[in-house]
Amino acid sequence: MSRSTLPPFDRADPLGIDDLLSPEDLAVRDTVRSWATDRVLPHVADWYERGELPVIRELARELGAIGALGMPLEGYGCAGASAVQYGLACLELEAADSGIRSLVSVQGSLAMYAIHRFGSEEQKQAWLPGMAAGELIGCFGLTEPDHGSDPAGMRTRARREGGDWVLDGRKMWITNGSVAAVAVVWAQTEDGIRGFVVPTDAPGFSAPEIKHKWSLRASVTSELVLEGVRLPADAVLPDAVGLRGPLSCLSHARYGIVWGAMGAARASFDAALDYAGSREQFGRPISGFQLTQAKLADMAVELHKGVLLAHHLGVRMDAGRLRPEQVSFGKLNNVREAIEICRTSRTIMGANGISLEYPVMRHATNLESVLTYEGTVEMHQLVLGKALTGQDAFR
């Protein structure tokens, strides 16, 4: 092929990654991007500044209508989409705001996935159709005030009392908690760690919202308090015993973060690139200076390498070949690089970079939470370290 017949360079897709996507993939991406552009971007800076997501139930129903909730799950009103398509949706949602992607991740990859993967047919029929439609919001209760990276040490307990279960304990930093209709709660039992499907209107259950956050402000974050919550015998997830259950859910959700982080990075990079082209200093746009171009080039390299990594992991997931260590690889790299892209974008934009008129500082502060939730940097380093050396350094 001669140079004259080569496709033009596309600054939005410099590696031609779109060539790897099917028409169906592109349609999913464009649908979610259009929804986020219309329904989130005009309002998210205000939501973030106010520290609330006042229309979360409305947004959940709209996300259900476009098939974004529980996307890769089959049946029960779920879209049955590919892992790549789900990843593309996460990228577009987080390009709008990490809080919106978190809403979808917790709903689909944690609460719905747990019920779909480990629940009884009765539990699936009772909850999944409403959750897929966005009529019912779910949350996932694993992290506790004193036990984050070490969930095996959780203090929440479930004991048998007659034919019932009785739950006592607290969970912390729970996305969607205060607006959820159902909570998947993990607790210690005499048989090991088990998962329970808990209707949030059960007596003894409460979910006070956590305030004064400086990250993920356009998101509902709560504490879960369980004080003698009595559940029937069939509230337990029958196919989840031990940490395998919650950890498999987390791996599924972390996969979405691998894509989502690149959405936040893309939005920040695009803002910096556009700004550099219009901001003049010393008589010309700052995009014409070598140091600015070096920053933009380095950011573009890491951004699109991250998208390639996410796509590769998605292809492996669709083939049933994605290992948890590979998900750790993706989350560790992509979130870390996304934060650096946001910080570098801010330097290009100077003081304007801290303004909510631009998305950069909002994405940067959100990613500080994304960096440590669903596995801190150190935990993913140790997962990879163990895989590489064969030595367990967690304890």
TrEMBL record:
Ranges of residues in domain Acyl-CoA dehydrogenase/oxidase N-terminal: 23-135
Gene Ontology BP, a term: fatty acid beta-oxidation using acyl-CoA dehydrogenase
Record domain Acyl-CoA oxidase/dehydrogenase middle: where: 139-229
Domain (Acyl-CoA dehydrogenase/oxidase C-terminal) ranges: 242-388
One of the record's GO molecular function terms: fatty-acyl-CoA binding
Record flagged with keyword Repressor: no
Keyword set, alphabetical order: FAD, Flavoprotein, Oxidoreductase, Transit peptide
Protein origin, superkingdom: Bacteria
Co-factor(s): FAD
Protein name in UniProt: Acyl-CoA dehydrogenase family protein
Source organism (scientific name): Streptomyces tardus
Phylogenetic classification of the source organism: Bacteria, Bacillati, Actinomycetota, Actinomycetes, Kitasatosporales
